[in-house]
Design a protein that fits this description.
The chain is 2% helix and 61% strand. With 245 residues, the chain is an all-beta fold. It is globular. 29% of the residues are buried.
Length: 245
């Protein structure tokens, strides 16, 4: 379950359009070899568009699609792929939007019989974009329907931010999500569990523009109850390159 990110922050009167391709190298094995078998590269593609705030009955807001592929398989083949798509809109005057979102994916393991789905999740809820001291923010509260073997009805709080410094020579951006999920997911190894687990995911990132649309930077990936059920807060930095086009 994750996020999205990077200026899916605003729905104001000016059109905004961006695409980016990012290549990250994740050092999680070097930092925590007990819980991670290897370091690996990750490829991200993001497309974001903020539309005009028109006078039409349905006022479309921002649209975001994000595709993430972790090359953690044998011989650096893709071992996990995740997709997220979201659209906001409103039919009223106050600039509180209805945000609709889908996410899902899959993973391949060694041995292959432990491969898995990242269950489909459908989300809906209010979102509020705003500016403060030159930075962009968006806060959203979602109802989540997670299509596990035993479906889970949940809530999620999402928060996004982004700010450019010195004519966007430096950018600080990111997101975090705080959400619930059934402990009993319908699998045999969870069938005796009851109640909800609370999870946290975050992706703060810092970018330095090298030349034109090319930047170098780093993302710090934060997990709690996302990739393990242990009460363990995991922090994994990356080194990355990004091209906007």
């Amino acid at each position: 379950m994750k996020y999205l990110l990077l200026f899916s922050l605003s729905i104001f009167s000016t059109n905004l359009f961006s695409q980016s391709l990012q290549l990250h190298y994740d050092f999680r094995h070097s930092i925590d070899p007990t819980h991670n078998s290897r370091n690996f590269p990750t490829l991200y593609f993001e497309y974001f568009k903020s539309q005009n705030d028109t006078s039409s009955f349905i006022k479309p807001g921002s649209f975001l699609i994000k595709i993430q592929s972790d090359m953690q398989g044998a011989n650096d083949n893709i071992g996990k792929t995740f997709i997220q798509a979201s659209q906001s809109l409103r039919l009223w005057k106050p600039k509180i939007f209805l945000s609709l979102q889908y996410s899902g994916g899959l993973g391949v393991t060694e041995p292959k019989q432990y491969s898995f789905y990242i269950a489909n999740a459908f989300s809906a809820g209010p979102s509020y974009p705003f500016q403060w001291k030159g930075a962009w923010f968006n806060a959203a509260l979602y109802y989540n329907y997670n299509m596990l073997k035993r479906p889970s009805n949940d809530v999620m709080l999402s928060f996004y931010w982004g700010k450019g410094f010195w004519n966007y020579k430096v950018e600080f951006a990111g997101d975090f999500e705080l959400y619930t999920l059934n402990k009993n997911t319908g699998e045999d190894f969870t069938k005796d569990l009851r109640g909800k687990t609370v999870s946290f995911f975050g992706e703060p990132q810092l970018w330095f523009r090298v030349r034109g649309n090319f930047s170098m930077g780093s993302k710090v990936i934060l997990y709690y109850h996302v990739i393990t059920s242990e009460n363990l807060f995991e922090t994994y930095p990356t080194i990355a390159a990004r091209v906007k086009f």
